[in-house]
Amino acid sequence: MNANLPESMRALRFHRTGGPEVLQLETLPLPRPRHDEVLVEVHAAAINPSDVKNVAGSMEKTTLPRTPGRDFAGRVVAGPEGWVGAEVFGTSGELGFVRDGAHAEYVVARVDGVRRKPAALSMAEAASIGVPYVTAWEGLRLAGLQAGDTVLVVGGTGAVGRATAQLARWSGARVLATAQGARAADESFRRAVDRVIDLEHEELVAAVKDATGGRGVDIVCNMVGGPTFAPGVASLAIGGRLVVVASTPETEVRFDLRAFYRRQLQFLGVDSLKMSEAAAAHILGRLMPGFVSGALWATVGRTVPLKDAVEAYRDVQQRGAGKYVLLP
Q1: Burial (CB count <10 Å: 0-12, 13-18, 19+), residue 164
Q2: Span 50-107, pLDDT tens digits
Q3: Per-residue pLDDT tens for 158-212?
Q4: For residues 12 and 219, what is the distance between their CA atoms, to the nearest angstrom?
């Protein structure tokens, strides 16, 4: 370890599950990386809905006490030769759950779980890519996305929805996406969408049929679940694929089994928590040409210091507020 490094660090911590009030800033010993790991000085770390759910006790595999935080960007301060001093970013289905996460001044990550940050991305932008874009990539991969497909994104204004729309457009697909009102459909959202379906004024299935000449879409990516499940299924063309990444608040749905097989549909589920650091880092590497070229872009809603992390968690929990990025 570098002798110039501090002996301790500040980290967000929870010893029991509950609301954001169970979180507190603590001083912990500086972690020491193993031979296959790097110690990253965290410059930015996003707050994802899954981080809030983790603190609330919704993630079965989490062990306590724990520092949350899956997505990060920063500078390597200790690790194998060739890595020290590098600006990196990463994400994981383990960080914040069974290993201490990135809502801290330093985080330990596996060497094969980080990628070097392109100069085109700020630290805050790089930290906001992880979960949304890795989840979107995996969903579209499972669905067999091809150029020329038509993709419907249900819940298009959320972080994963925006990432899905951008990736689908980058791959040569036509993109339809839902929004709840004109205010939600901001300029950044519209840049990746060919047809916005405003659910405050339009019925989903009718709008999809109108936009596709009655055919339906090849792929539905559903970021909401629950009551949007059945309309999503009805929006599919023959041979269509439905990808589900969330279901709140309802977890049980019904569908017509006869229509399912007669229309040759496929239902697919994506859980980014099952993805290792190395697998996620591989996807991040595949994404980089898109961010460097401008075909993909990260959206940072608000940056806050680590000392204000509890309030930021509260905003995400209560209002589903836009993308928060902590700056330790």
Answers
A1: buried
A2: 999 999 999 989 999 999 999 999 999 999 999 999 999 999 989 999 999 999 999 9
A3: 999 999 999 999 999 999 999 998 788 899 999 999 999 999 999 999 999 999 9
A4: 39
Residue 62 gets the label, from left (phi > 0), alpha (psi -120 to 50) or beta, of beta
Is 204:178 a contact under the CB 8 Å cutoff? yes
* pTM: predicted TM-score of the whole model, two decimal places: 0.95
d(CA 99, CA 130): 17
Q: How far apart are CA 235 and CA 186, in angstroms?
A: 24
Give the chain's domains with CATH numbers: 8-129+298-327 (3.90.180.10), 133-272 (3.90.180.10)
